[in-house]
Fold:
Amino acid sequence: MKKLALAVAAVVASVAQPVAAQSILRDAETEAMFAAMSAPLVRAAGLSPRDVKVVLINDPSINAFVAGGQTVYVHSGLIIRADTANEVQGVIAHELGHVAGGHVPLADRASRPALGIQLLSLLLAAAAGAAGSGEGAAGILAAGQQVALANYLSFSRTQEASADAAGARYLNSAGVTGKGYLSFFAKLQQLENSYGIKRTDEFLLDHPVSSERIAALTDTLTESPAWNIPGDAGLQEQFLRIRAKLIGYASEPAQTLKAFPLTNNSVYAHYARAYAYHKSGYPDKADAEANALVALAPHDPYFLEIKGQILLEAGKPILALAPLREATELTNFQPLIATTFGHALVATEDERHFPEAEKVLRQAVGRDEQNPFAWYQLGVIYETRGDQPRALLASAVRASLSGDPRTAAFSARRAMTGLPQNSADWIRAQDIALAAQNELDDARGGRRR
Structure:
């Protein structure tokens, strides 16, 4: 049974996972790739690209999931183990099948009857125990749990098969080849084989075995005109770059240098080594790799971004300004890159840079609501200026985004006392205070009346 559990964890998952317990990785280039590769699939699913997000989770396992709403979560391990952008598109198409099918809300339909069976089995077990039959009580309890689990797993397998079929339809409708979809399922099949999972084990799994999934999808995909459409070369280049930087970021430096030795002078190798050297405390080597990237493409905003970030975090914010300013302008003030630029302006500790920093950072938070670090930098500016109410508001927003309701409530209330009543900032502080207090009350076991 342990082998099965390990294998299930490695396979693309279907429904809700504990997102809050995992680390979200945010990167401008990665988010641009996700938006580009998912947009035609999102439209094919009848959804709007403006409403659907693909989010990267820092986790080495091969996994992707949805957890309610219109957000698809993809593990970094899946990106690293994939060979093509088209394989990732297949995974996203599958997860969009869950989104469009409402499978996370519908999962409650499976959990309710399962819970009912468990509760009923507990009641029957208690009755048997009262009658003096300990063995009978244990047997009834075990049987009830098995029935509940079997019902849930059967329901989950049905949802997985539905999402598989929907994903194939979206790929075909979008004119995206399904070759990557099948090749990724083949990877999962290899994993299942390595863990000893057989077709007869399917009743123990929350998904169909991969061999059945491949068999069910092959005709639909291969008979579509989209099957022989070549994969997007631009997307593949983006994918290879992002996979390299993820390897550099997520792997041990020794592993990165083994995968991308110094004799490898490709863009991908420079990218991976820049991150590996940077995270292991070799700023000069990291800077040399970033310079090699910029030499290959002097106006690539993402190469300029990593060069500026390395200089900034090496304690050279003045030198970081030029590449970060250009990267910000080239991406039309992409919020994450603009935040790093704003950070560099603040880090100079030269108040002459602060007006530009405030402008850049306010634009960043205006376009990206999930950016606590930008609010932190704004708070530094307000604090330096002596604007205590707005410094407190910045602290409240940052705490709210970071999952700290106690600090959010305290800072928001204090900010309200110094902000003009009913102004936009005052109303924002009030909203944060109310939401944070409700969260605190819920954690204590019930909201105040």
